[in-house]
């Protein structure tokens, strides 16, 4: 028996695959800068899409509330608003739970 650790070739292959072909700590010059720029652009796109979704969601909520006010008899408006808000709350809670699981 030798005291030197043996390396499995599949572990090295998985490490190279996970890092885009280079082993950990041995990136080619400029390769990490390209990944940093790509990551930054991805995050900027995500922020822009989230802002767009917030604006669209707010406009949808206001339009749906206006539609409820126009089409539903006054006696049932509060019930429809409550049901609509409950559905949105449940969907938001589900989405938050999914994202928390992904982050962990």
From TrEMBL:
UniProtKB keywords: Membrane, Transmembrane, Transmembrane helix
Listed Basic and acidic residues bias regions: 1-17
Region annotated Disordered, chain positions: 1-31
Sequence ranges assigned to domain DUF8060 in this UniProt record: 3-103
Protein biosynthesis found in the keyword field: no
Transmembrane regions listed in the UniProt entry: 44-62, 82-100
Signal peptide: none
Name of the protein in its database record: DUF8060 domain-containing protein
Organism: Halorarum salinum
